[in-house]
């Protein structure tokens, strides 16, 4: 039994020495490795949280900026549309005024040309009447008489012409 107790004692000492050696050689480095790894994992998690927070902040900033840019674009488009409508109305108004002026000028020109043609017709008619009357009377009529007879004839022609063109009013 002595042999058993010495062997038991030596085995316990061997186990204790083995534990001390394992502790020094294996447990401390493994524990240190595990602690370092846990620390790195924790730092990675914290860094990820910081990055996630930064990303969320940037996303919020970009979203706000995008909304403000969209609102600004809407305002610009609305202003451009209003400006275009105003310009279109202005151009249409100017075109109408210009068309009315052109029409008015054309009417005035037509009226002036009509009066000139009518006056030329009266002069020609007066000359024809004087010539015809001279031939009928076979004598020369004085120039004052020519004008007087021509005016009378033209008034009668104009009066008759006005009655046929104006429904019997007798006025031009």
The main sheet comes to:
none
Strand content: under 5%
Q: Please provide the ordered H/E string of secondary-structure elements.
A: HH
The helix content is over 70%
- Average pLDDT confidence is 83
Number of helices: 2
Alpha carbon gap, first and last residue: 164 Å
- The gross shape turns out to be rod-shaped
Number of distinct beta strands: 0
Task: Tell me about this structure.
The chain has 172 residues and is mainly alpha-helical. The chain is 92% helix and 0% strand. The chain is built from 2 helices and no strands. The longest helix has 136 residues. The C terminus is likely disordered.
Task: Please render the helix and strand layout as text.
Layout: H1 2-137, H2 143-165
Helix pairs in contact: 1-2
Q: What would the keywords be for this entry?
A:
disordered C terminus; 92% helix; rod-shaped; 172 residues; mainly alpha
What's the gist of this structure?
The protein has helices spanning 2-137, 143-165. It is built from 2 helices and no strands.
């Amino acid at each position: 039994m002595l042999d058993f107790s010495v062997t038991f004692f030596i085995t316990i000492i061997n186990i204790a020495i083995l534990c001390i050696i394992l502790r020094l050689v294996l447990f401390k480095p493994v524990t240190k490795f595990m602690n370092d790894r846990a620390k790195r994992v924790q730092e990675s998690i914290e860094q990820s949280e910081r990055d996630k927070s930064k990303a969320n902040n940037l996303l919020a900033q970009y979203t706000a900026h995008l909304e403000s840019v969209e609102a600004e674009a809407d305002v610009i488009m609305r202003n451009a549309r209003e400006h275009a409508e105003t310009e279109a109305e202005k151009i249409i108004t100017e075109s109408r005024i210009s068309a009315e002026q052109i029409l008015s000028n054309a009417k005035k020109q037509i009226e002036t040309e009509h009066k000139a043609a009518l006056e030329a017709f009266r002069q020609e008619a007066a000359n024809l009447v004087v010539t015809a009357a001279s031939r009928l009377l076979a004598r020369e009529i004085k120039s004052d008489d020519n004008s007087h007879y021509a005016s009378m004839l033209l008034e009668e022609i104009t009066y008759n012409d006005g009655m046929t063109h104006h429904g019997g009013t007798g006025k031009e």
